[in-house]
Amino acid sequence: MKPTYQYDIQLPPNLDPDKKYPTIFTLHGKGSNEKNMYGLVAPLSDGFIIIGIRGNLTLGEGFQYYELKSLGNPIREMFDQAVRQLEAFILYATEKYPIDMNKRYLLGFSQGAILSMALALTLGEQLKGIVALNGYVPEFVKTEYPLQSVEDVSVFISHGEFDSVFPIRIGHETAAFFENQTSRLTFKTYPTDHGVSEENQRDFVKWLKTDAGVHSNKG
């Protein structure tokens, strides 16, 4: 199978051929690219496989996974297709690389966070957890998708208190939605705009290590 998406993969430096590894799939924001996300998860690179997935649609000099009718309003057909294609990509990568099926994580920013949360709700316990940075769950996902249980999925959601793209109330609404879905929710806000602060990064790096049971010297 040829994957729909181009991607960048970083394998742990001292790879044990007999071992399966926890894996983080990163999903970038609109107009960005897969390499742009690597800096956020670099402190985890000695204990995790890291796969950066590039959106398959161009936007300026960057990429996106779907287009919008308006801000916060994805084109439904394109969004549905992205969810299906990302599900297929995760399966493809799991078969190709030494990935621990029980420790697969998604980490996304903005558009990537939106997709990470939608995929958590469609894949359910096929994922160990997600990190969603400054995103939301589209209403049609909540009301029209066949949602899987995320009771045993670990969810880290963060939002900028001064986010000028998705106001902070959206972060609180998103957290409230997941609070009703899983007891494994961590929700944090940071005094930032639509971005990821160093404190935010330190918190989710620590959270991922703890959740996956990874002990490393980095970060």
In summary, what is this structure?
This protein is α/β, with parallel strands linked by helices and 219 residues long. Helix content is 32%, strand content 26%.
Shape: globular
Overall SS class: alpha/beta
Average pLDDT confidence is 96
CATH superfamily: Alpha/Beta hydrolase fold, catalytic domain
Proportion of residues in helical segments = 25-40%
Main β-sheet description? 7 strands, mixed
Write down the secondary-structure element order: EEHEEEEEHEHEHEHEH
- Strand percentage lies at 25-35%
Helix/strand layout:
Layout: E1 7-10, E2 21-27, H1 38-41, E3 49-53, E4 57-59, E5 62-64, E6 68-70, E7 73-74, H2 76-96, E8 99-109, H3 111-123, E9 129-133, H4 139-144, E10 154-160, H5 168-179, E11 185-190, H6 198-212
Parallel strand pairs: 2-3, 2-8, 8-9, 9-10, 10-11
Antiparallel strand pairs: 1-3, 4-5, 6-7
Helix pairs in contact: 2-3
Provide an overview of this structure.
A hairpin with a 2-residue loop joins strand 6 and strand 7. The strands form three sheets. Strands 1-3-2-8-9-10-11 form a seven-stranded mixed beta sheet, sandwiched between helices. It has a two-stranded antiparallel ribbon with strand order 4-5. It has a two-stranded antiparallel ribbon with strand order 6-7. The protein has one domain: Rossmann fold. It has six helices and eleven strands. It is α/β, with parallel strands linked by helices and 219 residues long. The radius of gyration is 16 Å and the shape is globular. Helix 2 (76-96) packs across helix 3. It has helices spanning 38-41, 76-96, 111-123, 139-144, 168-179, 198-212; strands at 7-10, 21-27, 49-53, 57-59, 62-64, 68-70, 73-74, 99-109, 129-133, 154-160, 185-190.
